[in-house]
Write a structure and sequence with these properties.
This protein is α/β, with parallel strands linked by helices. It is built from 10 helices and 7 strands. The radius of gyration is 18 Å and the shape is globular.
């Protein structure tokens, strides 16, 4: 019960495969109360009401690209709970990926939407929280990211730049939020994970397998990521902020593994 008495918001739970869904289940088990939120279209497509019933949570629609919706979400959360202790931003969307537009021939209107929803919304979220003084001191804000922000994964498309921007916002806003309110802001760079959104990326199965064979501990599951998130919402990590934290089984620091070398050797035979 390391989150007993803590209140928060979890954005991005779509279905049982979602990392945000796993975080909500575990946060509830650890004693937290929270509001669940996602875009209106995602609420219609997903099964979030099942999660809400299971965790005794309220669901509030929020288009994170709209200031009005973000204001309404934060106002509702504060009205329900008072100041908040944790917020999870687990949101990413690329129409270029959905339309299978190659990186060298992108639709820029789609790209603007990608950046707005997947990254700028993180700044919008934190700015709204700060302006409304909605976070308790030593509160924790998390965003989910991927190592394509720093290395090239061709089929990840412009989501790579969106994740780079997300991580930069965590560092920059984390400084200001830490100075003013002792609120910590971090991103978790998760292994490729079998979520609905992740599996929509071209070549996902291949680089999921590659990452698993490259990582000394193998790919981290959605459930394991949820456990890491809970630890960062807790009081045990009060002095961790402005960090991009790798949760990837060691992939990020492995040059090459024995399994991958064996795969390459067999392919060359």
């Amino acid at each position: 019960m390391i989150l007993k008495g803590k209140k928060g918001i979890i954005l991005g739970a779509l279905d049982t495969k979602s990392i945000a869904w796993k975080v909500a289940e575990l946060a509830h088990a650890e004693g937290a109360e929270f509001i669940l939120s996602n875009a209106p279209i995602a609420l219609r497509m997903g099964t979030i009401n099942e999660l809400a019933a299971k965790t005794n949570s309220e669901v509030i629609a929020c288009d994170v690209s709209l200031d009005e919706d973000m204001n309404n979400l934060i106002d509702a959360a504060v009205a329900k709970y008072g100041k908040l202790d944790f917020v999870l931003h687990s949101i990413g969307m690329s129409l270029n990926v959905r339309k299978k537009n190659p990186y060298t021939d992108l639709n820029y209107d789609f790209m603007h939407k990608t950046f707005d929803i997947s990254a700028i919304s993180f700044h919008r979220l934190m700015q709204t929280l700060m302006k409304k003084d909605a976070m308790n001191e030593w509160g924790s804000i998390l965003g989910l990211t991927y190592i394509a922000s720093q290395r090239v994964f061709p089929d990840y498309n412009e989501m790579a730049e969106a994740k780079s921007l997300l991580e930069s916002f965590a560092r920059s806003f984390g400084y200001h939020y830490g100075v003013s309110k002792k609120v910590r802001v971090n991103t978790i760079s998760q292994s490729p994970t079998m979520t609905t959104a992740g599996s929509g990326v071209g070549g996902f199965d291949a680089f999921y397998t590659y990452a698993d064979k490259m990582s000394p501990l193998g790919n981290a599951s959605a459930e394991a990521c949820a456990q890491y998130c809970i630890s960062l919402f807790s009081d045990y990590t009060r002095y961790v902020t402005m960090q991009n934290l790798y949760h990837d089984g060691g992939f990020s620091f492995t040059g090459i593994s024995g399994d991958v070398m064996e795969m390459v050797a067999k392919a060359g035979e």
